[in-house]
Amino acid sequence: MAKTRTLPDKYYDKDYETNGIHRVPLWRIAGFALNNTATNLYLMFMNYVSFYLLGFVGVGMVMASSFTMAMRIWDGVTDPFIGYMVDKTNGKFGKNRPFMVIGNIILAASSFIMFHFTHKLPEGPARFIFFVAFCCIYYLATPASALLPRAPRAA
Q1: By CB neighbour count within 10 A (0-12 exposed, 13-18 middle, 19+ buried), where does 11 fall?
Q2: What pLDDT sits at residue 151?
């Protein structure tokens, strides 16, 4: 069986046809690791949602905990949808790259808005509704930013 190349020639070893070794530049390995690092930092940041809802938004403990569970369910509903969109995408910049960039931009913007503007709204249900809306947007972008590039396939 002949091996098929999925990347330009400059990314392959000179003896690729005989030994099948695919050499990846260091910057690509670093980029792969940094994408996952950014996603994990956002995950760690979101561990403080319940404390923020209690202290700044004015929601009770049971409501904050229920909200956290509901957002996890929302995340489980949106993940297959994002996966379907990624599978159907095949553009100039690849399958995953546009989703990773757009997802990280949405994560940055929505988390900044959630934690810097919610407590400045007038007290009452408006704060919680505002926070829920931006949290839904946040969790919609989470699977897109956490995509991992796939290794080239051999035929």
Answers
A1: middle
A2: 46
Q: Check if the beta carbon of residue 32 is closer than 8 Å to that of residue 146.
A: no
Residue 148 has pLDDT above 60, yes or no: no
Amino acid in position 15: D
Which residue has tokens 């290794």?
A: 151
- pLDDT, tens digit, for every residue of 57-103? 888 889 888 988 898 898 888 888 888 888 888 888 778 888 888 88
Q: Which of 31, 154, 155, 14 is nearest to 104 (CA)?
A: 31
Q: Which residues, in sequence order, are bridge partners of residue 94?
A: 91
H helix intervals, the chain: 16-19, 26-45, 49-52, 61-88, 97-117, 125-145
What is the amino acid identity at position 152?
P
> In this model, does residue 153 exceed pLDDT 50?
no
Q: Strands, DSSP E only, in 31-151?
A: none
To which residue do tokens 């919609």 refer? 140
